[in-house]
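Long-time lurker. I teach an intro course on protein structure, and each term I like to show students one example going from raw sequence to a predicted 3D structure in token notation. This year I'd like something fresh instead of my usual example. Would anyone be willing to generate the tokens for the chain below so I can use it in lecture? Attribution to the forum is fine with me.
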Amino acid sequence: MPVADDIQSSWADEVEIDLGALPPPSEVVENGLKIVTEYKYDNDNKKVKIVRTYKIEKRVVSKSIAKRKTWSKFGDSANDKPGPNPATTNVSDDVFMQFITSKEESQRTDDGELDGLKPQSSSVIYKCRTCQGEHWTLSCPFKNSEVVMAKANEAAKAAEAKTTTTNKYIAPNLREGAARSLPREPPGPRRDDTTAIRISNLSNFAVEADLDDLVRGFGPVQKLYLAKEKSTGQCKGFAYVHFKFRADAAKAIQILNGYGYDHLILNVEWSKPPQNN
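-- Reply from a regular --
Happy to contribute to a lecture. Here you go:
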């Protein structure tokens, strides 16, 4: 019988022969290309061979970038070789950005890379305050001329006349150019606190409807005020009630003072008006 040809095993079979250990990664540099070969397990727990090919290029960079590349690596890449590690570094394409400051700059034709370094003769960086020329004010040839000196003296005299016209204080609304405000109307009649009562020791869960039900039977009410917390909106424990008639307010004080309401004993008294200094 003919002898069967020897069957050559593939790289995957050679890897399976090993006792579960993955071969170390290898790098080969040839013809300006760096070929990196790695082995790992996929999602199905199978050994997979990964081959990455990098093109080696030499570029001229600035001194700061060249210095930064000499820094020692840290973290998970502390023991890595020079160059990016695909396991910890994501290498992407270079992004070139062009900053446009004005329409004229964007419409200008690019004559060369070195043209941008030339000084622009059309742009004016400084201007003389005396003759409005393109030079420093200190080196103006007309700074000592009679016309310029006369204008400067007139401006100084006008400024001095404005400051020396009067030394009296003028209110802002009466100064020159200020907007004239209309005269204020006389204040209206003050509120009548003689018919107001203060109810304290209220529950924190009391609302205006509960207060209205409590005092409605004593007579007509002009105003109800229930003090509340700004943050929670709950009652602070006291309220003010303005009755239309003082007799109704006195009747409410007589009946509600010491009255049990919502498991609490109410304290009702006349509202004390604020003391004016």
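Some talking points for your students: The radius of gyration is 46 Å. The mean pLDDT is 77.
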